[in-house]
Amino acid sequence: MNCCLLLPFMLGIPLLWPCLRATENSQAKEVEQPVGSHLRVKRGWVWNQFFVPEEMNTTSHHIGRLRSDLDIGNNSFQYKLLGAGAGSTFVIDERTGDIYAIQKLDREERSLYTLRAQVIDITTGRAVEPESEFVIKVSDINDNEPKFLDEPYEASVPEMSPEGVIRISSKMDRELQDEYWVIIQAKDMIGQPGALSGTTSVLIKLSDVNDNKPIFKESLYRLSVSESAATGTSIGTIMAYDNDIGENAEMEYSIEEDDSQTFDIITNNETQEGIVILKKKVDFEHQNHYGIRAKVKNHHVDEQLMEYHTEASTTFIRIQVEDVDEPPLFHLPYYIFEVLEENPHGLFVGMVSATDPDNRKSPIRYSVARSKMFNIDDNGTITTTSPLDREISAWYNLSITATEKYNIEQISSIPVYVQVLNINDHAPEFSQYYETYVCENAGSGQVIQTISAVDRDESIEEHHFYYKLSVEDTNNSSFTIIDNQDNTAVILTNRTGFNLQGEPVFYISILIADNGTPSLTSTNTLTVHVCDCDDTGSTQTCQYQELMLSMGFKTEVIIAVLICIMIIFGFIFLTLGLKQRRKQILFPEKSEDFRENIFQYDDEGGGEEDTEAFDIAELRSGTVMRERKAGKTTSAEIRSLYRQSLQVGPDSAIFRKFILEKLEEANTDPCAPPFDSLQTYAFEGTGSLAGSLSSLESAVSDQDESYDYLNELGPRFKRLACMFGSAVQSNN
């Protein structure tokens, strides 16, 4: 395609004659152009544009020539090229005015160049003509093939669709092939030489329509359920398949045939499975198998596609009930019994019954949980163990347990409610304790007390009480009673004046009867105190005095209790003091002062040579020193040495006296330590002639030794003598 762009060309005097050289099949043409808007120059032709007939594929190409009318060919003029692209894209021969393109021209990048030309006289250096503006227009050639701008192309066509821009040549089924690649070719210059073409690929996807119904792959499903399963339990799944996809493959399962109404099917929307659930409890002994038929259909079906969904797919489900060992089953969910109160123990209350629902029919054992008032035997008969009192408890809530004898782990329980029916076994009585007072100066007919009654029995009708005085009090003219007929009565004086000194207290026997069947009557005693009232005749003063008397009595009781407590504590302290004193007398040596020559100091002693701190003579025996004896000392020698030790030395009398005192204390003191215990003697004495009695230093055996001398020391040593005597006999 060739296009020309005309731009204004400013001319001066003399004129520039531009020339155009066409390439390929184009030829140069001279065009007469006006100068200015409507000016036509008479001196010659004016060229104001160059045509480049094709895109330049070479780096140097002759475009055309600029030549002035004044140029006579003597090379005295110089041509210059100015404007955008001058020197970089286009150059001019300064002598001849020829214009060349030195770069490849691309119309798609730039199709128009505006330049200016100027002619200068070389000799004078001045411009021969003013600058002239001209245009170089790049014409197009077919050097670009057609291109698809938005490839790759993808189209979605519903299967079984009617014609479109891209037509389908035959009926297509997405379930057989869901994608098609189509190659599209585009050509330009149709029917002309040099035409170019471009191709692209179009991916055509067939979208799904709901032209397939869901179908069960299995014609029979076998499931099982335990008879102990709860309602709502899932017992299995069924599955249908649909060749459609997405929304068109969504299914809905349902029960088509189930006469027992025992099962139901729900749809899992995520997995498109049918879940068979238990709608009602099943019983193996009642029915051990079931047969149901299920169907499936699509959720979304267009009206024009209903022909593909006329008949839904179905399948048969066989369900087997599994037997389990069930607990006993009571015939009723609960029991209610009624029994009269005050009946003797062993009274029949009612009977419950439970059976083993399994085929083996195990015997049943009954029991009552947490109740001491009732009992039940193996037949289910409930009896009382003691008389019942409705006023204590009107209802008893029992829990009866039934246990299989063949399997004690199978247990079931039911509630049993026992209502105790009322009988009129309680007579009415005063509703409270009454404190009644009458003044000495009270007149006849004065009301001194209003009384009421209560009845612990339950009455079908409203309680009604009747009041009257006993026969003895009726004959007594001091007081009388009036029944108000509203379950209350008033006590009135029947005489004028009372004597506090003569009769300070009156006791009135009042009979109260109820309206029960049979009617019961009770005798209630009303105590009336005579008091000295004030001038107004008020009994409040009398009540106040009575209160003070009662409080005084309470104060005296409190004081007496405190005195008793003080006496008890005093006795305890006295006993503890006596015991402490006896302990001090038991060890009197602890109170003696043996610290005569004992000093406490911080200086280091001088050893055995230092005799300044104590009297060494007091520690030594004047006559007898202990010696170590070799060999065994016999018992006779020990007794002899013992007697000698009591007589030897200047302090033998003191030692003997000390030993006898201790022995006497041990024999007579009831608080002394137990038998054969160690007595502490804090008196060393003058030593012993017997020497050491240690068995470590004994050289001979003591089998022939006699311990009879221990019997001579008194009853406290008798046990010790027996122990040593028996030991010697056993050794012999």
Automatic annotation (TrEMBL):
InterPro entries referenced in this protein's UniProt entry, alphabetically: Cadherin (IPR039808), Cadherin-like_dom (IPR002126), Cadherin-like_sf (IPR015919), Cadherin_CS (IPR020894), Cadherin_Y-type_LIR (IPR000233), Catenin-bd_sf (IPR027397)
GO BP term, example: cell migration
Record flagged with keyword Secreted: no
Membrane topology: Single-pass type I membrane protein
Leader sequence segment: 1-22
Gene3D superfamilies: Cadherins, TCF3-CBD (Catenin binding domain)
PANTHER family assigned: CADHERIN-19, CADHERIN-23
Identification of the protein by name: Cadherin 19
UniProt organism field: Callithrix jacchus (White-tufted-ear marmoset)
Lineage of source species: Eukaryota, Metazoa, Chordata, Craniata, Vertebrata
